[in-house]
Design a protein that fits this description.
Its EC number is 7.-.-.-. With 229 residues, the protein is an all-alpha fold. The protein contains 10 helices and 2 strands.
Length: 229
């Protein structure tokens, strides 16, 4: 149980692939103009992470070390192709919105890194859980970044949710304030770099405060003076 707690902490915060490892930044900064796009890409990445981690863990004893990286990439590409075909079949509008960034999940260093660093050395159950936590941590950063950019750029939240969740999700769309002209800095990739920098800075600040509180002040030793009577 302690191992699962550690994997949860590592994936969601301590070793978050987006905030700490700074992996997968290309789709993270390009697609997260809305919450819907961010959530769609995040869930796709999570599914690929789990599938590839489980598969790599199951075949780890049969793959020669010399060719393990090409094998891992082939496994990841297989799951990415499956996810893309499912999107085209059932969520075509979302697939069009995400565009080339679904196939680019194959080159996401976070997925290859977890396959090499963890899944290839651990049983499939722990590897599956590691994939869930790492994917969930990545997805949460995507959604947070997408929410901030969507609110700053268009004054809306959950715009286009029906692309991912169906027609019933049109009621989830919120207009927080009217925007006559969209704030292009927030919508375009330069705005994503700026917002991402603030998010990373906030995490570093929280970590610094936690470490400062964890350090106990040194105990002062008081000496008693003994006087002879």
């Amino acid at each position: 149980m302690n191992e699962y707690k550690e994997l949860t902490w590592q994936g969601l915060w301590e070793n978050n692939p987006a905030l700490v490892q700074l992996l997968g930044l290309c789709p993270l900064l390009a697609v997260t103009s809305t919450v819907t796009n961010a959530l769609g890409l995040g869930l796709a990445t999570l599914l690929v992470l789990v599938g590839s981690n489980v598969t790599v863990s199951l075949v780890r004893d049969y793959v020669p070390k010399e060719i393990r990286i090409p094998i891992f990439v082939m496994v990841i590409a297989t799951f990415v192709t499956m996810i893309q075909l499912l999107l085209k079949a059932y969520l075509f509008s979302l697939d069009q919105a995400l565009g080339i960034f679904i196939p680019l999940i194959v080159t996401n260093c976070a997925i290859i890194g977890r396959a090499e660093a963890y899944a290839s050395k651990n049983p499939w159950r722990q590897s599956a859980f590691d994939g869930v936590m790492m994917g969930l941590g990545f997805t949460l950063v995507l959604v947070l970044l997408g929410a901030i950019r969507e609110v700053l750029g268009n004054g809306t939240l959950f715009s286009g949710a029906e692309l991912l969740l169906g027609d019933w999700a049109q009621s989830l769309s919120l207009t927080l304030f009217a925007v006559e002209h969209p704030l292009l800095v927030a919508i375009l990739p330069p705005g994503a770099f700026i917002v991402m920098g603030f998010i990373i800075a906030a995490k570093n600040k929280i970590d610094a405060v936690r470490q400062a509180r964890a350090v106990k002040p040194e105990k002062t030793v008081t000496r008693a003076r003994v006087t002879a009577q």
